[in-house]
Design a protein that fits this description.
The protein is an alpha+beta fold. The chain has 4 domains: about 1-25; about 45-170, Glutaredoxin (3-Layer(aba) Sandwich), CATH 3.40.30; about 175-430 and about 445-520, no CATH class; about 520-560. It contains 15 helices and 23 strands.
Amino acid sequence: MRKAAQISQTTIEIIIVIGIVITLNILGQFYYTRADLTEDEQYTLRKSSRDLVAGLKDLVYIKAYVSPNLPTEAQPALDKLKDLLEEYRAAASSKLVIQYINPGDLTEEEKTGLQQKGITERTYTISGANAYAERAAYFDLMIKYIDQDVVIPAVPDKDNLEYEITSAIVKVTSDKTYTIGFLTGHGELTSADALTKLTEPLKKLYTVQDVDLQDGQPVPDNVDVLVIAQPTQAFTERHRYVIDQFLMRGGKLVVMAYGIQMDQMGGQQATYAAVPLESLLGAYGVKIKNDLVADPDYSLLIPVQAQSGPTIVRYALFPFVFSGAGGFPSGSPATRGVGAVAFPYVSSLEIDYGKVPPDSNPEDDVDNVMELMKTSEKSYSYPAPVDLTPQQDFKALATDPKKQLIAVQVNGVFTSAFKDKAVPPFDPAPDALEGAVPKPDTAPMTSTSPETSLVVIGNGSFVEDGFLQFLDRFAPLNQFRPSNEIFMTNLLESLTLGETLIGIRSRAITPRLLKPDTELKPSQKNALKFWGYIFLPCLVAVIGITRFYLKVQRKRLLAAIQTSSQTPRKERIEPDEEKRED
């Protein structure tokens, strides 16, 4: 009877569990949620993405073209895509439509149309124990809004799929396409040659073009942000005026340059050099100093050739700004999620607070002067001329170590540097006759700007293709990869689109750096080695042995209980029953 009661209770419990599972599955059809325990919510849809799709004004289609015969290696990417799109669906209004399409069901004409847009079969590798093969399959996305569409090809190859999808939605639904111009004609780094690793991804969201101020013509009206990257030649008065008037009409200006000149003969010295836009920047309250910043602690490790052979040194003139050392004090959107930014030489900046625009709105969260980047408190200014030899003792050269400002953003209403001055005439054409009278500019001068921004950085080559390749190559040596291009992309986006995509793009892992070797005592180093090499392995071993011992004891206890329950018990005979038997 007791066994029947136990069976009945077990049956009831099973029915209850099944009922709970069925109820949860039914509710799951209407409510979607999951837990993300990572520090920066790596697997959760960002608020900016949720807000974007929740506020859609018209139907947006996300079409996933996926072949049913995907290889096993691509299945995790498909599962990740489905989870991500389910989060988009849960956050969106009814204006977001998600479709999964089998390209095998399409006509050849439809497949040809998709191929012209970039959706096509791609070869995926199939690997096995004794086999290696390839299989053609579709795995692409298309985001479509009215007559606009953006294709995201080869989904498994995308490291940050949420950024790809959200940026595509932003592009197809935006009323305006912003233009970023890169100035040429003064020895600058150009978008087509030296900055391709930065500009090619930008072209997904922006129009990117070079700007030539030939003859002193104004900056084209379509340019929203003008980038001047590492100029090496002087600007004419007319060119300075044109740049000033670009800022006065509300354009955003980014100037990246240092105040030294490298030895063109390959020597180990950097000398004083006049900053090409020194007078113009000075009128706005910013000065690029004629120095290089040296940081003996927070700087890159590089290989050098010494007399004794190849060796590794920490090159103080290649400093990096580290979030863990307070390198991004302003909290600007441009530095959000950026772990570190490295520089191949950089000059420090000086702010004249008497000349910068006043804070037009003290109650908002935007400061008129935002200190974007500062080096560590052990860094110092090394005035020109600078000895560039990597093996020198840079720490011994420090005279006044302190944080050095190397990037700043000035916001507000600017006053023209040419106010109360005559408008410079147009520059003469290259083929003009000697002594020809310059053509006057009759357009009125704008002496005051609307609310706008000026960004100054003490070096422009930190986003040059060659230096980014250097960072890739020596990332294993330094044990982290600085996020130079992410910072620059965030900066340009904060000046145009705002903060919609910054938090998504910036899901970079902040480098967890130990204190530099110069700050660690020998006893601290030995303690760290003991902790990493001896204590932790021993702790794991002890935990494993303890778990094994407890598992054995548990098995023995269960075996003893089972043996005891199976032993037959002798029935007790009452005395009256014994008498009756007699």
